[in-house]
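REQUEST FORM: STRUCTURE PREDICTION
Request ID: SP-0412
Submitted by: Lab K.M.
Chain count: 1
Length (residues): 439
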Amino acid sequence: MASSSSFASSFQSPKKYDVFISFRGEDTRFNFTSHLHEALRTNQINTYIDYRLEKGDEVWPSLEKGIENSTLFLVVFSENYASSTWCLKELAKILECSKNQDCSVMPVFYRVDPSHVRKQSGSYQKAFEEHERKRNINNQQLQKWRDALTQAADLSGWPCSVNRDEAELIKEIVNCVIQKLGPRYQSEDYLKGLIGIHERMADVESLLDKGSKIGGCQFIGIWGMGGLGKTTLAKALFNKLRFTYEGSCLLTNVREESKRHGMDALREKVVRGLLGDKESHIGNAICPYTVSTLGRKKVFIVLDDVDDLTHLEKLVGRHEFGSGSKILITTRDKQTLGNEVDDIYVLRGLNPDEAFDLFSINAFRNGYVDPKIRELAEEVTKYAGGNPLALKVLGSILRGKNQEAWKSQLAKLQKLFCPQMHAVIQPRLDWRDLRKKPF
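STATUS: Completed
RESULT:
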């Protein structure tokens, strides 16, 4: 395969931000845009807005980076939008990214006539008359901004007159954003290179669907040894499904984070993630209003790398979530799940073809396999037992080595642990058992 990623590789979103909001601060910062931003945040939509800039950041480089790292763009055209050169620079950059990166631009015409934006008339004409008098702005730049305004105003968007219900409009915008984001995160490009993940996602989704017919809150465990890709699988499912829930939270590396920060801090993180509300907790206590609110919400929670049964009780066991809620738990230890889960998905190693593909990606340059070494490669693949991380480690060790070195290394591997493998295989599992039964 051409990609160097794997089923167990680090899972990354294509963009850092879901949405970038471009707006004129003096017009809408403390009314429409602040309400829109809050609604997006409450729905777990990661949104870039200019007050996220850290003190000391250079303004334009930070804004430019934010635009490049965003998937969708909401442009709030208001009366004085065109009077800001920053807004016009943002808009030109946004349209450049939307053209080159297949992003979506969604305009909102906030108490401004779309034709004024399109033709640069009304307040937009006055703004450009002011820009024309500035010596540091040339005609080429002005024309670029005019073209950007015309192009953006021709896009499908939302008018917002004085008589329109802004709360309803914001709901409509958020729903549209969710609909646009969902397919993007479910696309083949998002999962490209994650060998074997489609089948495994489908298996877990079938368990989730089964619980949906019953109702209530469903707990599903993903169980398997280290290195099989439990975290990758859980993250893929989270990114695909989270937009269909009223609240969602992904809590990774629970085992280590609980030791580092304590369970109370993790519990608060779960609540904040579900409600999108930093004020939903008081100290370490969850207030009655919060419990009541969670009980009405259909939520999707992923708890990754749980190794203690009490973690489940402290993080989610005390909360009654809305009907249709799903709790997904990954663990290396089946005993951790106890009787708390409705179903357990046993994550097994890659099949021989998948394993060889992944091993080859890491062991051979440009996908080329020397015929003399292929047989040895197949033996090494079998030795790894279909464990993706083990395959990556072994492939890296043997990469670029000649046939004699391969034979020598294989002989050693048959007798001894590879030092790098200790972090991959659970201490309680015997290496010989791994060769017999990938798990």
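NOTES: The two ends are 24 Å apart (CA to CA).
Reviewed by: T.R.
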